[in-house]
Fold this protein.
Amino acid sequence: MNTPMDTPNTASTSGAGTALDARLRVDRPAFSLDLTLAAAPGEVIALLGPNGAGKSTALRALAGLLPLTGGHLRLDDRLLEDPDQRLHTPAEERPVGVVFQDYLLFPHLSALDNVAFGPRCQGLPKRAARAEAATWLERMGLADHASVRPGRLSGGQAQRVALARALAVRPRLLLLDEPLAALDARTRLDVRAQLRRHLTEFEAVAVLVTHDPLDAMVLADRLVVIEDGHEVQSGSPAEVARRPRTDYIARLVGLNLYQGRAEGTRVVLPDGLAIATVEELSGPAFVAFPPSAVTLYRERPQSSARNLWQAEVTGLDLHGDRVRAELAGDLPMAADLTPAAVAELGLAPGAAVWASVKATQTHAYPA
Amino acid sequence: MRNRTTGRDRRGTNGGSAPALPRRRQGAHRIPVTLLLPALLGLAFLILPLVGLLVRAPWSGLSEQLTSTAVWDALRLSLISATAATAVSLVLGVPLAWLLARTELPGRRVVRALVTLPLVLPPVVGGVALLLVLGRRGIVGSWLDSAFGITLPFTTTGVVIAEAFVAMPFLVISVEGALRAADPRYEEAAATLGASRLTAFRRVTLPMIAPGIAAGAVLAWARALGEFGATITFAGNFPGRTQTMPLAVYLAMESDPQAAIALSLVLLVVSVAVLVGLRDRWMSTP
């Protein structure tokens, strides 16, 4: 009841360096997670990855809802879990706040009592806990909804109550599981902006789990991309978006990505095909280019482009005001066109085309 | 509505002569007679005895029958012991249901089977078993007698014990079902907010499964109120002390059938009241 809340002071004095230092190992028969996470105070980390990659497992392990089978978890220089020492601090004794995917607001309690739940569990008298909760709701712009039961809150309001409830325990680690997934597209935009503001104000470490790259890029200072329980890439959102290292990320950020060996200003793919680039590199490398950089022709063009390949259209999809064409061939790729161009070229699934990409529009980087 | 009238028409007009005709007219929408007839028979079977009770009730002398002290003693004893048995079931049964639903108790299946056994066990057998354990010379009873001077059989406490033995499984099953239906992640959410397992149970789980607990309690109460076999075996039949309404009805049937009918009416009214209460408050919630 009392020890977890003593840590913030010691943490802020020890100050710099890592507030979160974790190696999360969870071994199960069909799945294993092995993830190293470190974060400074105030940092927001997004765990990004496809379904089943182990994001939620990592979050549950951080929260103490799932015991580690190996590794360790240290928060503000306090060792919370270390299976080797048979140390497992249960969830209720960790200075951790969680915003669950579907919020899990207690349906029988008002918004105010939901937020007051944590402070009360920490030993605050009922009246003080409620006053504290009222402050949090006010900060979230929900003062008018204090007496409302969760069932009558809108998705965006419920999300903010859940955030207030998690923050009211004054956590040193805030965990958010797909915080925007339950919202419709319109409220999502607003809530994302608000959440960004609250996360910026939050002085301790926040870890959020998402499969939405946009959420991750807007909300996080650093992305950690997980696939199959392991980190495949980490870095700032801009870095990851510009230099994806797996197909999953490339697809998320809308890039065509290939891996091969760089030889000067060209990257040779495993099957012998070469892509002309402008960067001088050697050794294992990635090449990426956006679908909008691809130009399609029905006839072989009289062009000087060094990157020219034959392909077959396998699918056409409307994305906003652009049409995304999926191409199969020596070099599978996605290409963006205007609807007018699609009509002009008479494109349909099965159509044979020539695709060209200017070397200046590719981006090569070491693997 | 439409189906029912046409079904009746068909039986009336066609008899059994032209079974092909209605099929052509109504297709798949008609109710097959092979289902309708036994269904109506079943309905009559369940309702007619109750109607008979109302028809044969000594309405004129009813007030006299019901104001006799013997009736009031039995009714009072029944209500008190059934309520006490329900209270015992709640105090012991809710934690037991939690244990069955939320923990990895070794041999949980066996435990659950044992818990539900009194549901199917003939109550008389339950009464005999209780006597063997809690009776004066029983395994626990002899010790209770020698150490504390407590005797349970043939006392009002004995009535409560017999009724609780028979009624508690209803509560346990009902509450366990409610617990399984309740999302355990709410308890996890409570834990991340600093709630111990007990606090989470008290402040989150319990309020969330309250409808299930209430439904189970009402079921257990109704079962306790009607309990006969275990009660008469374990607690006997002493007016004012262990003679509950069902026992009084049975006894009156031999000496004064009119009184038996009157007593039965009272129990019927109480049961209907319970059912109405159950429907209004708890039947709508899962």
